[in-house]
Amino acid sequence: RLKDLEVAELGDSDIHVKMLAAPINPADINTIQGTYAILPPLPAVAGNEGVGEVLEVGRRVAGLKPGDWVIPAITGLGTWRTQGVFPEEMLLKVPSDIPVLCAATLSVNPCTAYRMLADFETLAPGDSVIQNAANSGVGQAVIQIAKASGIKTINVVRDRPDLPKLVERLTALGADHVVTEEMLRKPEMKDLFKVPHEEPHCRCHAGRGHRGLTGSLSPQSAFIFRDVRLRGFWMTQWRKEHAQDPQSLASMMDALVQLMRRGQLTAPACTEVPLQDYRAALEATMKPFASSKQILLL
Question: Which positions fall inside the Enoyl reductase (ER) domain (predicted)?
Fold first, then answer.
């Protein structure tokens, strides 16, 4: 429900924030459905991601000032609101010279894509990665970050009525190849995966935050005979594990912001929706073959 709440009193270490925009992600839907790994006590404000402008700071706050832009530093902040008061440690400052939709969608998908490309294997220009769900928010970020690093991408999507438009859009982002799951089964696709020396390292995006690393597209025998490894990845867990290493987060955010400033990393395809139309935005998010991320304007 959309309802009016009293804004909490500003504490000495608190930040009063006016939210600007917040996306609807699959994890938000899962949280509402009660199936996500982290569930807030009810009643709760939904929304894990977004960007806001600082209106006022408590007297002990030194790192932020009115006018600064902030994004959540934690999962479950509750961003689907017009205003909120949060402890300083729950927020992360971002520059206000990047597009607002880029800032609103910065803390989840681009970070996941960045870590996926940086942490699983040592990739060099000319290497290739393969991902499925390539039209997702993470997939679009992978394409752009890889392109900026000289890494080629093979992008797998589900067949759909508007496939030519989707292929055109992903190619414009920098995708080297866009294929459907059905096309992958054709024998002639073997040529796409040939490499000159060792077995290819193919990075597969399994959807909703899970990432795997594999050495071929063959089934169980690849795991047994070729030392293929499959790993899960969850950005929330990465943040927990690096809570005592703020420099690792800062360097990642700086790298992503620089890509945005250069126009090499853009927000995913978005539909801007006023907060009062949130029900329509939720329905659009859950439709099959959703090709545009719903962004609540607050």
Answer: 1-298
Q: Active site residue: 31, 36, 50, 86, which one? A: 36
Which CATH code fits 122-226? Answer: 3.40.50.720
Q: State yes or no: is 278 an active-site residue.
A: no
In the chain, % of residues over pLDDT 90: 74
Return the minimum-mean-pLDDT range out of 112-121, 138-147, 217-226: 217-226
Question: How large is the average pLDDT for residues 209-219?
Answer: 40
Angle between helices 246-261 and 137-148 (to 10 degrees): 80
By CB atoms closer than 10 A (0-12, 13-18, 19+), residue 165 is: exposed
User: Nearest Cα to 296, choosing from 75, 157, 100, 153?
Assistant: 100
What is the token pair recorded at 210? 């899970």
Sort strands 51-57 and 69-72 into parallel, antiparallel or unpaired: antiparallel
Q: Residues spanned by CATH 3.90.180.10 within the chain? A: 14-105+267-297
Domain with CATH 3.40.50.720 in the chain: 122-226
Query: Which residue from 199, 208, 80 is spatially nearest to 128, judged by alpha carbons?
Result: 199
Q: What is the pLDDT of residues 40-71, one digit of tens each?
A: 999 999 999 999 999 999 999 999 999 999 99
Q: What are the CA-CA distances from residue 164 to residues 22, 158, 287 (Å)?
A: 29, 12, 19
Alpha-carbon Rg of the chain, whole angstroms? Answer: 20
**Antiparallel, parallel or unpaired: β 51-57 and 177-180:** unpaired
Torsion of CA 230, 119, 294, 165, to 10 degrees: -80
pLDDT confidence band for 285 (50 / 70 / 90): very high
14-105+267-297 has which fold?
Quinone Oxidoreductase; Chain A, domain 1 (3.90.180)
- Residue 189 is predicted with a pLDDT of 77
Task: Sort strands 14-23 and 51-57 into parallel, antiparallel or unpaired.
Answer: antiparallel
Residue 41 phi/psi, 5° resolution?
Answer: -65, 140
